[in-house]
């Protein structure tokens, strides 16, 4: 007698940790809201035109928050002009000001900047030093109170509060079983963030206007730090592997760290801190963040293409070209589709290279095509919602398949206008 064992249900991400939601313009971070994608410009903020242009590119790629460097009086003075340029471009994305060392001076000297920004980010490791630290920290928090802005208190492995490190090292020497150096550094990072948050609350900033982050550049260290801080507070948390690196290394490292935390329900907003290739668009980090969340089933941003990797059965690079063409077409159309069609981001597509897995994968997608492999008839069956709908042949398969995709979107998804 044969026994059929039911397939186990796929693992699902853990429920999000209960915490306080923070409003940043039109966006909510934490409090059960969807995980938010953010990015940062690398332009000179003193140049309003180039900075506004890059912010617009990032926003149109799907960045829901965009952070800019505010490091000089001229940069602070440029912020309202950047906001105005974005408004003229029809771009409504919250802008976050990134302050180090002199944020208290810049916000006080440029009230229009303090008003224009949607959130302030400060680093407890360099907001001030010695006797000036508490005064300068308090000055920024008081500006946030005056203009009703939220604040991210972002501790960073590379700019730890050295007085905190020294204090914890002294404490560690008194332990019966001292921690190792990395444990002490992690604790310094977490305590720096938590103590600063408490100080901000004591000054008057409510919990629903505070976000915390504790960034490091190592995968295992990041996981350990965020597990610990998530267990010790209910503030909204921003996730990111700092200085992740370039290309595949940066993508792999960021995904490895953030995926573990997100699977455990930790994290309310994320940034993928990639070093862009020379001359490459900054939007790559936005796409990686979106794809990470979407492939984990946490959010949907744009239709993704399941595509054959290729093997000895595939006869040409055509399926690779078609997969790229389809993915590029979808990304180009999404700004319009997102406005016009409800639910189109959940559309699934497949571009396959031979008969082995081609028809099966195509049937699992909303729209799929199985291109002919080595020794197969020169035809490409197209499957729509699991059923074979037609067969394409000849030199115009790519344009015909794009046409099928566009027609499906127009007919399948309810028009917002209608």
TrEMBL record:
Q: Which UniProt keywords apply?
A: 4Fe-4S, Iron, Iron-sulfur, Isoprene biosynthesis, Metal-binding, Oxidoreductase
Q: What pathway does the annotation place this protein in? A: Isoprenoid biosynthesis; isopentenyl diphosphate biosynthesis via DXP pathway; isopentenyl diphosphate from 1-deoxy-D-xylulose 5-phosphate: step 5/6
The enzyme's E.C. designation = 1.17.7.3
Domain IspG TIM-barrel: residue ranges? 22-289
Task: Provide the function of this protein.
Answer: Converts 2C-methyl-D-erythritol 2,4-cyclodiphosphate (ME-2,4cPP) into 1-hydroxy-2-methyl-2-(E)-butenyl 4-diphosphate.
Keyword Repeat, does the record have it? no
What does the entry's cofactor note say about binding and number?
Binds 1 [4Fe-4S] cluster.
Q: Where is this region: Disordered?
A: 1-21
Q: Which domain of life is it from?
A: Bacteria
Check the record and name the InterPro entries matching this protein.
Dihydropteroate_synth-like_sf, IspG_bac, IspG_bac-typ, IspG_C, IspG_TIM, NO2/SO3_Rdtase_4Fe4S_sf
The IspG C-terminal domain sits at 305-405
Catalysed reactions listed for this entry: (2E)-4-hydroxy-3-methylbut-2-enyl diphosphate + oxidized [flavodoxin] + H2O + 2 H(+) = 2-C-methyl-D-erythritol 2,4-cyclic diphosphate + reduced [flavodoxin]
Cofactor(s) listed in the protein's UniProt record: [4Fe-4S] cluster
- Could you tell me what this protein is called? 4-hydroxy-3-methylbut-2-en-1-yl diphosphate synthase (flavodoxin)
Q: What positions does the entry give for [4Fe-4S] cluster binding?
A: 308, 311, 354, 361
Q: Which family does it belong to?
A: Belongs to the IspG family.
Record-level GO BP terms = isopentenyl diphosphate biosynthetic process, methylerythritol 4-phosphate pathway; terpenoid biosynthetic process
Bias kind Pro residues: ranges: 7-16
Organism lineage reads as: Bacteria, Pseudomonadati, Pseudomonadota, Gammaproteobacteria, Lysobacterales
Q: Does the keyword Transferase apply?
A: no
Q: Which GO terms describe its molecular function?
A: 4 iron, 4 sulfur cluster binding; 4-hydroxy-3-methylbut-2-en-1-yl diphosphate synthase activity (ferredoxin); 4-hydroxy-3-methylbut-2-enyl-diphosphate synthase activity (flavodoxin); iron ion binding
């Amino acid at each position: 007698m044969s026994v059929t064992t039911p397939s186990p249900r796929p693992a699902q991400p853990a429920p999000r940790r209960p915490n306080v939601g923070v409003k940043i313009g039109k966006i909510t971070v934490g409090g059960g809201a969807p995980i938010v994608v953010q990015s940062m410009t690398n332009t000179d903020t003193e140049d309003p035109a180039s900075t506004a242009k890059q912010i617009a590119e990032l926003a149109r790629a799907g960045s829901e928050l965009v952070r800019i460097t505010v490091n000089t009086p001229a940069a602070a003075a440029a912020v309202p002009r950047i906001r105005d340029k974005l408004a003229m471009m029809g771009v409504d994305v919250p802008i976050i000001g990134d302050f180090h060392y002199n944020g208290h001076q810049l916000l006080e000297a440029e009230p229009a900047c303090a008003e224009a920004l949607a959130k302030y980010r400060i680093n407890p490791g360099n907001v001030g030093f010695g006797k000036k630290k508490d005064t300068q920290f308090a000055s920024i928090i008081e500006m946030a109170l005056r203009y009703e802005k939220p604040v991210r208190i972002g501790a960073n492995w590379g700019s730890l509060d050295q007085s905190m490190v020294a204090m914890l090292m002294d404490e560690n020497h008194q332990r019966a079983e001292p921690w190792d150096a990395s444990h002490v550094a992690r604790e310094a990072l977490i305590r720096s963030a938590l103590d600063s948050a408490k100080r901000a609350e004591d000054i008057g900033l409510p919990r629903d206007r505070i976000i915390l982050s504790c960034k490091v550049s190592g995968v295992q260290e990041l996981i350990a730090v965020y597990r610990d801080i998530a267990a010790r507070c209910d503030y909204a948390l921003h996730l990111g592997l700092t200085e992740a690196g370039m290309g595949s290394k940066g993508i792999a490292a960021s995904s490895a760290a953030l995926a573990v935390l997100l699977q455990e329900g930790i994290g309310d907003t994320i940034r993928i801190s990639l070093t862009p290739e020379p001359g490459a668009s900054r939007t790559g980090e936005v796409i990686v963040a979106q794809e990470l969340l979407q492939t984990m089933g946490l959010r949907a941003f744009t239709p993704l293409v399941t595509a054959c990797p290729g093997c000895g059965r595939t006869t040409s690079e055509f399926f690779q070209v078609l997969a790229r063409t389809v993915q590029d077409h979808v990304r180009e159309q999404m700004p319009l589709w997102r406005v016009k069609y409800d639910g189109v981001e959940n559309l699934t597509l497949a571009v396959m290279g031979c008969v082995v897995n081609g028809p099966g994968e195509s049937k699992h997608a909303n729209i799929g095509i199985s291109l002919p492999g080595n020794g197969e008839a020169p035809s490409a069956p197209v499957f729509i919602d699991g059923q074979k709908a037609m067969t394409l042949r000849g030199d115009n398969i790519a344009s015909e398949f794009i046409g099928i995709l566009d027609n499906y979107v127009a007919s399948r998804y309810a028009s917002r206008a209608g």
